[in-house]
Amino acid sequence: MPILFNEKFEGDCELGIWEITESYDELLSRVHLFPGERDRLESFRSDARKVEFLSVRALLKELLGRSVQIVYNDKRKPYLTQCEYRISISHSRNLTGIMLSKEKKVGLDMEFMSHKIGDIESKFINDDEKITDDPELRKYHLYIHWCAKEALYKICDKQDINFRKNLTIEAFEPQPCGRIVGWVDNRFWHDKFPLHYFTINNYVVAYCCKTL
């Protein structure tokens, strides 16, 4: 299980990312499945979805040094049972990522830069946001916005959030890595969040952590 990135920051926050190279059987042998998880695993029709399910649990075990059960609320937000850590999970193609913290809320997103994200730009970029006109950077800039908004969506518990109406990323010039600021404004939140982003291979990673 090759870990591509593992770093601790801002106190007890930890981010781990690894590349899936194992087969289904190899991953299955690495994890402990809690009651109900095997039935859920076998309910997936896609082999890729099954591998993703197992890879998340294998990475979590690697980061914590033990098996911990992941459960989800009605908004599909993950929680850990009998464990003090908050968790955020992301998966894209062959990478799986997990962010953990006991002290802060966390949000993580990763995206492989493949499809024509410009085709859906109007669905998540609002009139107050600025995207570069440089054709060489435009797709990358849009992916940073998308990943940052996904991270905000997750840290705010996926509550009543429209990416275009309720989330705004302050203007910035895209770099290989950097710090940006995002705003959440809806009936539950009116607050700003510091976010960080970077690239790994052809993926964009954005994350935020905050004491609330």
Give a quick summary of the entry.
With 212 residues, this protein is of the alpha+beta class. The protein folds into 2 domains: 3-103, Ribosomal Protein L22, Chain A (Alpha-Beta Complex), CATH 3.90.470; 109-210, Ribosomal Protein L22, Chain A. It has helices at residues 24-30, 37-43, 47-64, 121-124, 138-155; strands at 3-9, 13-19, 70-72, 78-80, 86-92, 95-101, 105-112, 167-169, 177-185, 190-200, 203-210.
N-to-C SSE series? EEHHHEEEEEHHEEEE
Count every helix, treating DSSP H or I runs of 4 or more residues as helices: 5
The overall average pLDDT, rounded, is 95
Approximate strand percentage? 25-35%
Largest sheet: 5 strands, antiparallel
Roughly how many Å apart are the termini?
A: 34 Å
DSSP summary, beta strand count: 11
The structural class is alpha+beta
- What is the global morphology? globular
Q: Class of the largest domain, according to the CATH hierarchy?
A: Alpha Beta
Q: What fraction, in percent, of the residue positions are helical?
A: 25-40%
Which blocks of ≥5 consecutive residues have pLDDT under 50? none
Describe the structure.
This protein is of the alpha+beta class. It has two domains: 3-103, 4'-phosphopantetheinyl transferase domain (Ribosomal Protein L22, Chain A, Alpha-Beta Complex), CATH 3.90.470; 109-210, Alpha-Beta Complex (Ribosomal Protein L22, Chain A). The chain has five helices and eleven strands; from the N terminus they run ββαααβββββααββββ. It has helices at 24-30, 37-43, 47-64, 121-124, 138-155; strands at 3-9, 13-19, 70-72, 78-80, 86-92, 95-101, 105-112, 167-169, 177-185, 190-200, 203-210. It has a five-stranded antiparallel sheet with strand order 7-11-10-9-8, with helices on one face. α1 runs parallel beside α3 (47-64). The radius of gyration is 17 Å and the shape is globular.
